[in-house]
Every structure is written in C-alpha cells, then in structure tokens.
Amino acid sequence: MAQFYIGVNRKARRCYGFDEIALVPGNVTINPEDVDVSWEIGGKRYRVPILAAAMDGVVDVNFAVAMGKFGGLAVLNLEGVQTRYENPFEVLEKISVAMPEEATKLVQSLYLEPIKEKLVSKRIEEIKKAKVPAIVSAIPQRAARFGEIAQEAGVDIFIVQSTVTTVKHISKSYKALDFKKFCKSMKIPVIIGNCVTYEVALELLDTGASGLLVGIGPGAACTTRGVLGIGVPQVTATIDCAEARNAYYKKKKKYIPIITDGGMSTGGDICKAFACGADAVMVGSAFARAKEAPGRGYHWGMATPHANLPRGTRIRVGVTGSLEEILYGPARVDDGSQNLMGALQTSMGSVGAKNIKEMQKAEIIIAPSIQTEGKVFQVAQRVGMGK
Question: Could you read off the pLDDT of 129-153 as tens digits, one per residue?
Fold first, then answer.
C-alpha cells in the first residue's frame, strides 16, 4: 500500500472506510433468491451472517431468542445489566429516561453493582430453553471463570472481547489470559477480538480460536477513537485481517472466519464489509432500533460504564420497526437500515456472487463521492441518504 510523508522522515499509509469505496456490478448477475448468504463457524452453519453485538441496549434474553429463531446469533454481554440485576428492566428504564448530560454518570453508577455468577448461568439457560443458540461475551480477565460457568450452562459459542486484543499482553496487576490454553480448555467454539492489523490477526488465529472479531472504535456508540486516538477504518482493517486469514489457511489448511465488528449502519455498509473479506458481520445500532431491543430506542457502548475512562456514550437511535423488518423486511424506511438480508442478497446478485466466498472477490473501487453524487436534493431535504 502506498505510503506518504506526513512530516520530515515520518511516513503514514492511507486507509479507507466504508464511505470511501463502492462495489462494481458484475459481468453476470444472479437472481437474489438464488444466492447463498449462510456462513459457518465451529462446524455449524447459520443462515444469517449478521450477529447482534454484545451491548446492553441491543441484546437481552428475549432479543437473543428472537434472533435465534430468525436464524441468526445475538451475543449476550456477561458483564452488563443482565448479569448484575435479577430484574434489569428497571435499570434499563432509568438509562432510557436520563438526560444526555447525566447518562454516562448514571450508567457508571449502575454498573458498579457486582456481577452475580448465578445470573450468568440463569441467562444462558433461559436462552437455551427456547431451543436457540446461546452466544455470550466477556473480557479476557473474566474469560477463564465465566467460560467455565457458561460452558456448564450449555452455551454454544463464547467470545473473549476487549477494545484491543493481542496474544502478547503485559500486565503487572493481573495475570494475562493465555489464549491458546483457554481455547484448548473449551469444548465449544471461541471467538476472539478485537484486532485490526495483519500481524495481530495472524497471531490470534494461531491460538485455536474459531473466529476473529475485526474493528477498533467504529461503533455508533463508541468513543474510543476520540478518547484514545486509535483505530483503523473498517475497509482497510477487514482487508488486512482477511489476508491474514487466507495466509493462515494456506499454511495450516484451517479456515477461520473473520467477523467485521462495528461501523456499519446500513445494508450497503454490510455488503461492502463482505466484499472486503468478512465471513460475517456484527452490528449494534441497526438492531438497537428494533422493537424487541431492550434499550427502548437508546444504545450505549460497551465501555461507557468504565469507572475512570469511559470510551462509549449513550445515543438515541429510536425504535423504527420489528426485528423481522430490520432483518428480512419489508422495509418501512428509505435509509438502508431495514431488510438487511434482502440488501445483502440483492447486492450479491448484482455483483454476480453465488455465496459469501464469491462476494469476497467482488471488485472494489475508491469512490469518495459515492454518498453525495447526484444526492443534492436528498441532502438539502435531509431524506434518504441525506439524513
């Protein structure tokens, strides 16, 4: 990739986000009904390659069950209100009615309530009672203990997730998680995240993980990039990590899927993520708008409750429709935030991709005017792509 001088003897490479690229239609087009959008992880195939993020305004037991019945996966945060409170509904109500200037402080105080291990088991068992997959998330420091509890409760997939994850983590105050040892000890698929670079992705893939989360700071409710100044735009991050996945496959003959996590607010963004090499995507704000979401039209970052350095905020996304409308339509809005599966199928058909693997080979162009070209009336009237 081309590098440019940004000062004397200091080079930087150009990286790209979703708004700066577009997909080129194929020489052959396919009926959207004939494309296969399913993906595989841990030897199981799922018909919806879009995961709901482990955020308290997005996923609770009821949402996880609903998502599972539609063929997808919704990740329950094991360190959120669902495992801190026997009755989290009252807490979620307080967060939803708080004034904007009070929201972060309130969330910080509410998350001081200790996590109860019995609730970790209880929530997983409640999801499994509905005969749908249970998938949960925890930070590396709690992964060993929560992984053991979750596995006993019947969880299907366990995610170890933090803002920035590396195999080589140094700490004097706590023992770093040995990812290889942890993955080997678990009898279920383990997904690890988050990362954005080729080198780190390659090392994480070699731990025995069944999947990898890609993305640092792009989420709608995340403020990591503003607070810490770190992050790589999702197009470049996904392409780099996908290349690491491909290199690992060539060397070890083991294909480990990567999941682009965050930065996608429309169907178009999701389609671009697959073209960049993703096997699946994880989104939060799109699902926070569902009637079934526990946030009541609000959405906040996983690091919002951090006691000393919040790296997330509470945003209002509104309630725009049912989970079915957001996933499968019919779309009631014109901004690309509903019928995400229909958008993916139509995009794949337009570029001539029969499945996700072929979608990963779609032609990509650099097109910074893609969002604004010919859209002067939409922008002026704040409708469609001009909202």
Answer: 999 999 999 999 999 999 999 999 9
Q: Do 104 and 308 contact (CB within 8 A), yes or no?
A: no
> If residue 52 lies in a helix (H) or strand (E), which one and from where to where?
strand 50-52
Exposure on the CB side of residue 227, measured as CA atoms within 13 A: 17
What pLDDT, on a 0 to 100 scale, did the predictor assign at position 333? 87
pLDDT score recorded for residue 268: 96
Contacts of 251 (CB under 8 A, 6+ apart): none
Instruction: Please give the pLDDT value at position 198.
Output: 97
Cβ within 8 Å of residue 357, ≥6 positions away: none
- Is 11 part of any domain? no
Query: Does pLDDT of 123 surpass 70?
Result: yes
Question: Catalytic residue numbers?
Answer: 222, 316
Residue 8 lies in a domain: no
How far is the C-alpha of 54 from the C-alpha of 294, rounded, in Å?
A: 12
Model pTM greater than 0.90?
A: yes
Q: What's the mean pLDDT in 303-330?
A: 88
Domain that residue 350 falls in: 16-386
Indicate the number of domains in the chain: 1
Dihedral sign, Cα of residue 239, residue 243, residue 246, residue 252: negative
Domain holding 282: CATH number? Answer: 3.20.20.70
